[in-house]
Amino acid sequence: MESPNSQVVLVRSKSLGPKLLVSIGAHEFFKLEMWKAALTELVATASLMFTLTTSIIACLDSQEEPNPKLLVPLAVFIIAFLFLMVTIPLSGGHMSPVFTFIAALKGIITLSRALIYVISQCIGSIIGFLIIKKVMQQKLAETYSLGGCAIGGIKPQEALLLEFSCTFVVLFVGVTLGFDKRRAKDVGLPMVCLVVAGAMGLAVFVSVTVTGQAGYAGVGLNPARCLGPALIQGGPLWEGHWVFWIGPFLACVLYYGVSVNLPKEGLVWVDDGESGILKLAGDCFYVKD
């Protein structure tokens, strides 16, 4: 004969299962819209990898500019802006496990959708770099490691710090605006894309100029982008590969902790002159009769 306590535990266990499935978004596995969005992420990530990587290698291989590395952030900015404009209305425009992870942390997407998005992004990256491998000259592929993420020339801990810091900058500048529905609606989609792409270009610029090391490829900002060439090209790209996963995800965790404590209503302006320095000085030296 069951005791009342065992019956309570049984009822709780039965109710906990469906509630947990709902909270992680298991129902989305049966929604066609989610799979269409995941396919969009796959295609967009593959296209982004192909376009961005070939453009970056073309910049680095250019002999016309005194410092072709300065062209890389500009290429990142322009290409990221174009892809964000197209994909944000369709799937959210993540194209990176970093944006997917922070979106899941903030509850913008479910854990189930986040999992499918990340898998799609990784598959898309592999497809994109497979295409690059087929069409690129072997010499260029070897010289620039297929455009993969390499930390040669600096220590892993230095690369980790750069990856963490630059990813946090992108999140703080871009995601703070992009994930704020009211502000994003006020400024419009083009401005949101401009800010996010600008933050990415700025992060790349900082990483490729501050170190000055030829073997360092700059921050990845996208673990999926680093995974594709590592699987296809291999070799030195596996050295320190963990940096391009751990750094961004630590930045996401820190940013989430910061973002939940950001002001919700924004800056509240006081009336003109109430707290001015002259007003404060007058209050200090004014002697009341």
From TrEMBL:
SUPFAM superfamilies: Aquaporin-like
Alphabetized GO MF terms: channel activity
A single Gene Ontology CC term: membrane
Gene3D superfamilies on file: Glycerol uptake facilitator protein (1.20.1080.10)
Subcellular location: Membrane
Membrane topology: Multi-pass membrane protein
Alphabetized Pfam families for the sequence: MIP
Keyword Transport: yes
Transport found in the keyword field: yes
InterPro entries reported in the protein's UniProt record: Aquaporin-like, MIP
UniProtKB keywords: Membrane, Transmembrane, Transmembrane helix, Transport
UniProt similarity note: Belongs to the MIP/aquaporin (TC 1.A.8) family.
Entry protein name: Aquaporin TIP1-2-like
Protein's organism: Senna tora
